[in-house]
From TrEMBL:
One of its GO terms (molecular function) is phosphotransferase activity, for other substituted phosphate groups. It comes from the Bacteria. It is a multi-pass membrane protein. One of its GO terms (cellular component) is membrane. This is Sugar transferase. Pfam families: Bac_transf (PF02397), CoA_binding_3 (PF13727). InterPro entries: Bact_transf, EPS_sugar_tfrase. It comes from Kineosporia babensis. NCBIfam families: EPS_sugtrans. Gene3D superfamilies: NAD(P)-binding Rossmann-like Domain. Keywords: Membrane, Transferase, Transmembrane, Transmembrane helix.
Length: 509
């Protein structure tokens, strides 16, 4: 793996190296500069631990209020006026809901403020609360009104997810301003350290900012890696922690820091109140697929196989069919209006049919509203040299084949709405990889062919992460990430983010 430098130089290509001794150590409490050029501070009096405690308290209070509001809405919607027993139940639900979320470990810091695990535990809590009410109702032989339950529980989950989403936006804004960031000392091989630093700098919402690196020098002394100061080799991690004031030490791919040596390092960091995280070298794998299995005194990392079939896949299929049908019915007036608009603004059919490749390599006919002139396919060859695509996909920002009405449809992705019928038929999913053309699949590498393990989606990570602005490698990485780590919670998160992406219209042409 090449060691990439944003300024065009790698560690192997440094013409002017600066001895480490020439780079003075960072004093604890100083304000280092991150690889993005920002001054990295602790936000004055806002420490990372303080911020996460606030997040926990706000999440607990928000969950309580969300359940209280949901219970009262269900009470008035079902009975029209407060009823004695159901009023008591509505006031009890918030306490039960908070206890259930706590039981699902939904208030643990490692799940808060990043990733989909926080939302997944809320969804699990909704299922647990539904089962708990059913069991209690049966045990007391006092049937709770189904209308009340089927309003209160989904509303509780929905309101809670909205609260958590607002909290997530709040903490992201603070971190984007450089507040309450955790300083990270990255330790390991130079090439892997560079990769980790790049990822942390590209995703500051996680609240981790690299402030120092410990890499094997191999006779070459350098002062910085990716604009992050090199403060020694892996043998002086503890000194580097003192120099940088690090809150976290991240150990990545270093053979000398494993086994007993890593154990002793964890003890030493524990005494200093510094967290230790270890990268196993596995990339693009979501948390639910990873688990630790202690065997014979060893902590073994177990990697679960992606869910390609079984109960979870049947659940996804049922979710797609049910929600797809509901969305199709709700969208009928919009579909009719768009169909009339297409027919009145350009000659030709309303729908555009194109062969795409679905799960397992099976071909199907994908539907779209026609947004181009009728002979668009015949004119494509003459425009290939002007492509703004990513090297694999053909795209033009100013495509002369697009009609005026079609440009509006494409701007807000309204031309994709007929694919709801593909979802209902089972050819596509609401969320999944982009549906490829047969000629694209013919040129797939072994890695790219893995995209075909799940049904293509009406939307996906590619849709909410840049759409046509992404290069092929980035598009493929996002599709493979989804293929290996999909879950209902991730699907719901992507559907929510899709609404914002469609409104903004970024990357759509």
């Amino acid at each position: 793996m090449a060691v990439m430098e944003p300024r065009g130089r790698s560690l192997r290509q440094l013409d002017e190296v600066v001895p480490i001794a020439a780079a003075p150590p960072l004093a604890r409490g100083s304000r280092p500069v991150s690889a993005t050029g920002r001054h990295v501070g602790l936000g004055g009096s806002v420490e990372p631990d303080t911020l996460m405690r606030r997040y926990q308290h706000y999440a607990l209070a928000g969950d309580f209020l969300a359940s209280l509001l949901a219970g009262l809405l269900a009470l008035f919607a079902r009975f029209g006026a407060p009823a004695g027993a159901y009023l008591q139940l509505s006031l009890t639900l918030p306490v039960l809901w908070v206890l259930i979320i706590a039981g699902q470990r939904g208030y643990e810091r490692r799940f808060l403020g990043t990733g989909t695990e926080e939302f997944r535990r809320v969804l699990q809590g909704g299922l647990v609360m539904f089962c708990a009410i059913a069991v209690v109702s049966y045990g007391l032989r006092s049937e709770v009104a189904r209308g009340y339950v089927f309003l209160a529980i989904p509303a509780t989950v929905l309101f809670t997810l909205l609260v958590r989403r607002q909290l997530r936006s709040w903490i992201y804004r603070l971190r984007a301003r450089g507040l309450a960031l955790q300083r990270v000392l990255v330790v390991g091989r130079a090439d892997v350290v560079v990769s980790v630093i790049e990822k942390l700098d590209n995703e500051p919402q996680h609240g981790l900012v690299p402030v120092g690196a410990c890499v094997p020098l191999a006779g070459a002394e350098v002062s910085h890696v990716q604009d992050v100061p090199v403060v020694g080799d892996p043998g002086r991690v503890l000194d580097a922690v003192e120099d940088t004031g690090a809150h976290v030490v991240a150990v990545v791919s270093h053979p000398d820091l494993s086994g007993q040596a890593l154990r002793r390092l964890s003890w030493a960091l524990e005494e200093r109140g510094v967290e230790l995280i270890v990268s196993p070298g596995i990339i693009e794998v979501a948390g639910p697929r990873l688990s630790i299995r202690p065997i014979a005194g060893l902590s073994l990392l177990h990697l679960e196989r992606p869910s390609g079939n079984g109960g979870r896949m049947l659940g996804k299929l049922a979710f797609d069919r049910i929600v797809g049908t509901l969305l199709t019915v709700l969208a009928l007036p919009v579909l009719a209006a768009i169909a009339i608009g297409v027919k009145l603004t350009s000659p030709g059919p309303v729908l555009y049919r194109q062969t795409r490749v679905g799960a397992g390599g099976r071909e199907f006919t994908m539907l779209k509203f026609r947004s181009m002139v009728v002979d668009a396919d015949g004119r494509r060859a003459a425009l290939m040299a002007l492509s703004d695509g990513n090297g694999v996909l053909f795209k033009l920002r100013r495509d002369p084949r697009v009609t005026r009405f079609g440009a509006v449809l494409r701007r807000f992705s309204l031309d994709e709405l007929p694919q709801l019928l593909n979802v209902v038929r089972g050819d596509m999913s609401l969320v999944g990889p982009r549906p490829p053309l047969p000629e694209e699949v013919a040129g797939y590498s072994a890695d790219a062919a893995r995209r075909l393990k799940v049904r293509p989606g009406l939307t996906g990570l590619w849709q909410v992460s840049g759409r046509s602005d992404l290069n092929w490698e980035e598009s493929l990485r996002l599709d493979l990430r989804y293929t290996d780590n999909w879950s209902i919670a991730l699907d719901l998160s992507i559907l929510w983010r899709t609404l914002r992406a469609v409104v903004k219209g970024a990357g759509a042409y």
